[in-house]
Amino acid sequence: MSQLGGILEKFAKLQTFKIELQQNNIGTQGATDLSQGLSKLITLKTLDISFQWNKIGDKGALDLGTGLRRCSDLLFLNLNIRANQNNLTKIRKLHSYIQKIKNLINYEFDNDLNMESEEEEDIENVDMELINDEDFTDENDQVESQENDD
Q1: Least C-beta-crowded within 10 Å: which of 68, 82, 92, 111?
Q2: Taking residues 89-113, what's their average pLDDT?
Q3: Whole-prediction pTM value?
């Protein structure tokens, strides 16, 4: 995955990107590497990314959200992270990261957490209420605040 992340950096003016990575045994580091590459696609308008049936975990999902949030020109996003060992709290955090993309017009978020219990039933709904960033802390927030201080 680190190679893909590095290759993406060379396509900074890419406007449309579709990638299907399902069932590739991609772990946290792979998701982190991909998110670093995606964060360099500053003119990206449309992204369709399929990550189902991997092992990106919570940190990989949050890193992905951090990378996507830097795609400030993104208008259309289809993100599928079904079956990736994520918990509800981190999925909501990822969702809140994506909601901060100012120009986003259409956002489809596919995950399987809503199948686990009734209290999680609305997680697929893009209209779910925004989560206040103060409610969560993780390594991404610390790195982000350090970047903003520079």
Answers
A1: 82
A2: 86
A3: 0.71
